[in-house]
Amino acid sequence: MSDIKALKDEILRLTREYSRQVHSCFRPADDPIREPWKSGSPIPYAGRVFTEDEVAAAVGSTLDFWLTLGNEGESFQNELAEFMGVRKSLLVNSGSSANLVAISALTSYKLPENRRIKPGDEVITVAAGFPTTVAPIVQIGAVPVFIDADPITGNAQCDQLQSAYTPGVTKAVMMAHALGNPFDLATTLSFCRKYDLWLIEDNCDALGCSYSMPRPQAESLGFSQNSPGLDEGPDRVIRWTGTWGDISTQSFYPPHHLTMGEGGAVNIVSDQKLKVIAESFRDWGRDCWCPSGIDNTCNKRFDWQLGELPAGYDHKYTYSHLGYNLKPLDPQAAIGRIQLNRLPEFIEARKKNWETLRKGLSGSSEFIEFSLPTHATDWSESCGFSWDKSGCRTDCSWFGFKIAVRESADFSRTDLARELDEHKIGNRMLFGGNLLRQPAFVQLRSDRPESIRVVGDMCGSDEIMNTTLFLGTFPGLTSTQLKFEIDVINNFISERRIEK
Questions:
Q1: ∠ CA 233-236-238 to the nearest 5 degrees?
Q2: What whole-number distance in Å separates Cα of residue 411 and Cα of residue 367?
Q3: Bridge partners, residue 267, by sequence
Q4: Is 363:489 a contact under the CB 8 Å cutoff?
Q5: Where are the domains of the chain?
């Protein structure tokens, strides 16, 4: 046995050395052995940031060859739940799958009849964003009701929630925190409490973002405790995004705040019943909650009688939902556990990178409109953000640096994107822009007009679609790369000033 352990140790030693030599360009930006960026090389908008620790964890787990979700997965689920301060986190194979599991759980017959989402019921969402925040609503047979987005924050115009409500038909709100900017949780939670609606937070772009509100307001909404590691004193409650709603989702795709390659999670904030239901939908729809390879944790494996099955039918093969198989692999979870330890430094790096870009581009504000966090009214280099009178605050672990080309500029968003592209600077639109303009949704409205409902004219979502792009803020960006990005944009705009 000692020889086997020594062999594994040597494999992992060589693995670590290999990674140090081959993967140095993927190390955190401030890592002393990070390979320097060379002028003319691409600058991605996002990407994997890792060291030999993640590679060794993946190889070590693979050598054990359990493969399917096991001990590493269980540990990661517990560690993520502990970090966030939620009841349970369930790993899945992507953020999109997490959204599908989250809303599918709310269709279960095990929930109270008046709250269960049934075909034809409505779920309020926002028009601008990523399609797999909305697609699961359609896939479960519900009707997405679109409200507009604010071009400055990128988030839903939550003052439209009331207009989107239909008594007895609206069952939930499901929206994303856009680019790591929390949506107006105070307004949304008040609305959901008023009508006893579910709130699903798509937190895929926002792991490590926080939202706070005055303590009396938070307590009136049912919150008295801060999330672990967050403290703003006795007068405020501050919690991570993804912990205010009933259920939330994460993505661990490489551009996100931490990565497992592919992967995601469903966070059950407090309701144990939702944990059991979500786990069922993730795991084929089965009624049994035993992990793979483990039997009879309830000590009643052959004592159940469910549905029209014979008494004593094996509980491991009893299915209460029309579910899926959406688990990731254990080696992915092993990578995720190392990444989770890096999350605090990743969060701070994203904030710092956003500030660097904002300061560097301030002189171009005549032509560029900058994003603001929800509840912020302004930003200055000397004082930071100014805030509205709501008493609520947001602290963003930015997924991206969102900018928009002003209407008065003599160049378009596409002109700027092409300039960035020519200099190999990664940039993206705000995902799908106005989703209602996307081919899939245009066709859906043509085929089944009743399958979608729209509130308002979607001017804000159209503006985002036509004028907005974002740059990266991920922890792999060095100060040299950020300066290059700033110089390219400022020079592009200066040339147009001269031409004018």
A1: 95
A2: 9
A3: 89, 248
A4: no
A5: 71-317, 340-499
Model pLDDT for residues 126-157, shown as the tens digit of each residue: 999 999 999 999 999 999 999 999 999 999 99
> Among residues 333, 336, 334, 306, which one has the least CA distance to residue 318?
306
Q: Which two tokens stand for residue 50?
A: 């890792």
pTM of the predicted structure, to 2 decimals: 0.97
Alpha-carbon distance of 105 to 123, in angstroms, equals 14
**What was the pLDDT predicted at 500?**
57
Q: For the domain 340-499, what is the CATH superfamily, name and number?
A: Aspartate Aminotransferase, domain 1 (3.90.1150.10)
Strand extents, DSSP E, 203-263: 210-214, 236-240, 247-251
The two three-digit tokens of residue 446, written as one number: 């043509």
Q: Residue 178 has what DSSP assignment?
A: G
Question: Hunting for tokens 């239909």 — which residue is that?
Answer: 166
Average pLDDT (393-407) is 98
Residues 222-276 have pLDDT tens digits of: 999 999 999 988 999 999 999 999 999 999 999 999 999 999 999 999 999 999 9
**Amino acid (one-letter) located at 298:** C
Mind listing the pLDDT tens digit for each residue in 469-486? 999 999 999 999 999 999
Q: What percent of the chain has pLDDT over 90?
A: 95
CATH class held by domain 71-317 = alpha beta
H or E stretch covering 108: none
379 strand-pairing partners? 385
Number of H helices, E strands in the chain: 14, 16
**DSSP one-letter code for 128:** B
Asked if 176 and 248 touch (Cβ cutoff 8 Å), the reply is: no
Catalytic positions: 256
| CA proximity to 400, closest of 265, 257, 263, 266 | 257
**Helices 52-64 and 2-22, axial angle in degrees (round to 10):** 140
Give CA–CA dist 77/65, Å, rounded: 20
Question: Two tokens at 119?
Answer: 């075909």
- Three-state DSSP at 180 gives helix
Count other C-beta atoms under 10 Å from residue 456's C-beta. 15
Look at strands 143-147 and 122-126 and give their pairing: parallel
Q: Report whether 117 contacts 171 (CB < 8 A).
A: yes
Element (H, E) at 379: strand 376-380
| Total residue count of the chain as it appears in this document | 500
